[in-house]
Amino acid sequence: MADGDAHMSSPQAILFDTFGTIVDWRSSLIEELTAFGRERNIVGDWTSLIDAWRSAYAPSMDRVRKGELLWTTLDKLHRATLDRLVMEFGIKGLAQEDLAYLNKGWHRLRPWPDSVKGLTRLKKNFIIGPLSNGNVALLVNMAKHVGLPWDMVFASDLFHHFKPDRENYLGACQLLDLQPKEVMLCAAHNDDLKMARSLGLQTAFIARPTEYGPHQTKDFAADEPWDVIAANVDDLADKLEAVRET
Amino acid sequence: MADGDAHMSSPQAILFDTFGTIVDWRSSLIEELTAFGRERNIVGDWTSLIDAWRSAYAPSMDRVRKGELLWTTLDKLHRATLDRLVMEFGIKGLAQEDLAYLNKGWHRLRPWPDSVKGLTRLKKNFIIGPLSNGNVALLVNMAKHVGLPWDMVFASDLFHHFKPDRENYLGACQLLDLQPKEVMLCAAHNDDLKMARSLGLQTAFIARPTEYGPHQTKDFAADEPWDVIAANVDDLADKLEAVRET
């Protein structure tokens, strides 16, 4: 164990932030959209478009949170942003079906190298699931595409809320019929863990220092003494096995 | 293919009724409660109690459907029924934790012999999930206990409705971002398939003629020409592979 409570008890379930923590969205999308542009001979600054796409993520969810939009899935928020960015970046020649295909790039994100191995190990002893702002279709398609062995998918459209709204964290605990202290959130983002801890969940931090590429400004390390600080998902399995054996 | 539409197109997702279709609730509970009684030297007509427990299933959900009860999970309905039946059957010596343990017998039901093999095959080509009146905790615990390889768990507490309310069938399609015609329900109960078909879903029937033991009165065979009629879940995989290959 790293920092944190020496009297920590083993959780029953471990939930995972997904974009950034489990999958490497930026490299996946850069590779996919760049290849798409090359094959179709469509010129565009795909890398900047992807960074702008992700920059619009939090503001687009905030529009739902503030009530400016009724409940809207992340797939639909992604698509609205993509339509705007394609115009702003002056990218020509994309048909409606191309835009639909590119938007589903978020369903085809690659996991970090340790994710599938670590989750497969953790699944033996714990209930595992994403606790993500993605919608069910996005997260289920992603899991099937790359083999994420979830027991249950805690998508934002189950709650009609986006993290860090408390409804997502507490809603997942309620559906599992577990107390927050019996559930651990694992995330590469300190803010996500801060909310989870404030609601009574256990916390595990994994650094993903290349998530945002050259634009990463935070989350290089744990900001607080989270219950577990692990190098990656596989290392989290090591550390939790050690807790179970004590 | 058996009966039904020769032009049937392959579904994207296959949802399964669970109690009776995937798991053999009656034999599992008889075995478990009988063994419990023997070990604890508690006398009771466990088999009759289990049949009465299941007989109370539909009426208890109807109380929620009619608004006599606010949303209540199946775990809680099961527990209320169990508490009543233990009194009615004059079973003595059960502590609160015993009742909680016995109620969780529904989380430990055994699959029919073909279920895990068939689901594992189907998972390669289709999104698979239960569409059940069980709650998330019950269905996730059951899946982990016996290895049901669900991609997503469409439990009744995601919808705050019980089948055959349309909200469960259509809600699952919506969460998957699929049209009803892209989704198949597989069930051992003609009534469940009737509602699914009326809402546009594809249908697959599997007979489970021993589900209710000597008390079974219906569902020995398909009442209508469902899209697929299969001997069991493994045979359903055979038949759907044949469709995909045409």
What would you note in describing this structure?
Chains A, B: InterPro entries: 2-HAD (IPR006328), HAD-like_sf (IPR036412), HAD-SF_hydro_IA (IPR006439), HAD_sf (IPR023214), S-2-haloacid_dehalogenase (IPR051540). Chains A, B: Keywords: Hydrolase. Chains A, B: Pfam families: Hydrolase. In chain A, helix 1 crosses helix 2 (46-55) and helix 6 (115-123) packs parallel to helix 10. With 246 residues, chain A is α/β, with parallel strands linked by helices. Chain A has two domains: 13-24 and 109-245, Rossmann fold (3-Layer(aba) Sandwich), CATH 3.40.50.1000; 25-107, Orthogonal Bundle (DNA polymerase, domain 1). Chain A has helices at residues 25-40, 46-55, 57-65, 74-88, 96-103, 115-123, 136-146, 166-175, 190-198, 233-245; strands at residues 13-16, 127-130, 183-187, 202-206, 228-230. The N and C termini of chain A lie close together (11 Å). A five-stranded parallel sheet of chain A has the order 2-1-3-4-5, sandwiched between helices. In chain A, helix 9 links the parallel strand 3 and strand 4. At the A-B interface, helix 7 of A face helix 7 of B.
Q: Proportion of β residues of chain A?
A: 5-15%
Secondary structure tally, helices of chain A: 10
Strand order of the largest sheet of chain A: 2-1-3-4-5
Indicate the percent of residues in helices of chain A.
Answer: 40-55%
CATH homology-level superfamily of the largest domain in chain A: HAD superfamily/HAD-like
Strand tally of chain A: 5
Number of domains of chain A: 2
Using CB atoms under 8 Å apart, which protein chain pair has the greatest interface?
Answer: A-B, 20 and 20 residues
Q: Tell me the quaternary state.
A: homodimer
Backbone structural class of chain A:
alpha/beta
SSE series of chain A: EHHHHHHEHHEHEEH
Please identify, by name, the CATH architecture of the largest domain in chain A.
3-Layer(aba) Sandwich
Rg over CA atoms of chain A: 18 Å
Biggest sheet overview of chain A = 5 strands, parallel
Rounded mean pLDDT of chain A is 95
